[in-house]
Specification:
The protein contains two helices and no strands. With 66 residues, the protein is mainly α. It starts with a helix and ends with a helix. The model has no long low-confidence stretch (mean pLDDT 90).
Length: 66
C-alpha cells in the first residue's frame, strides 16, 4: 500500500512531537524542571491530534468514510 504525502508528513509529526515530549519528561525528572510536565502534555495532545489526522487521511485514501 502506498501512502499519500499528507499521511507521511502527519506520521513524521507524530514521531517528532512524541520524541520532544519524552525529552521534556526526562528533563522534568532529571533536572526537576516541573514546568516541562505541562509542555510534555501539550506535545502528547498535539501528537494524538496529528495521529488522528493521519488515520483519517489513510481512511480517505482507502475509500472508507469515517
Amino acid at each position: 500500500m502506498r501512502h499519500s504525502l499528507i499521511y507521511i508528513i502527519d506520521m513524521i509529526q507524530v514521531f517528532g512531537l512524541a520524541a520532544f515530549a519524552l525529552v521534556c519528561i526526562i528533563g522534568a525528572i532529571a533536572n526537576k524542571a516541573w514546568w516541562h510536565i505541562g509542555t510534555a502534555a501539550m506535545l502528547f495532545v498535539l501528537a494524538a491530534a496529528s495521529f488522528a489526522d493521519a488515520k483519517k487521511e489513510e481512511a480517505e485514501q482507502n475509500g472508507i468514510n469515517l
